[in-house]
Amino acid sequence: MSWKLAAAAVTLRDQVNKRYPKRDRASDGTIGDQAHKRRISDHNPDKTGYVMALDLDEDGWPAHAFADQLIEYMRKSGDKRIKNVVYEGRVASGTYSDQRWVWRSAPSLGHAHHIHISFAEPAKHDGAPFPLPVLEGAPLVPAKKAPAKKTAKKATPKP
Length: 159
Prior knowledge:
By secondary structure, this protein is of the alpha+beta class. It is built from three helices and seven strands. The strands form two sheets. A five-stranded antiparallel β-sheet has the order 3-7-4-5-6, covered by helices on one side. Strand 4 and strand 5 form a beta hairpin. The radius of gyration is 21 Å and the shape is globular. 26% of the residues are buried. Mean pLDDT is 84; it is low at 140-159.
């Protein structure tokens, strides 16, 4: 069966790649491998041929900031294109009203070396960009420490 990646996944991947062209892509992925084919997974094409998952390697770019900003965007925007995000033994989704788009512990889900994003039905044809600060403007760099304050030496009286 031929397959196609959901439009929102294509857009998000392209935004990340454009903004961070030198990031590591070793753990990137879309279509599932043989292990995925043996179970239900958004990495497998659905009945219409769409793959509804994207993995992004965490190395070489501010992946933690990206994941946190994506969750915040989903919580505040009302965008319905993403089903869930899994990263470093945590999951966030719009599934539970009392924990809507809040990181929850899910150690059994793993994903220690990449961010997994599952997309919902509206993502198939909606490829609008995701307005995340980490994908716009200047690259994120660690903050520099403020210089130490200079203090004048007190003159010691001569005997």
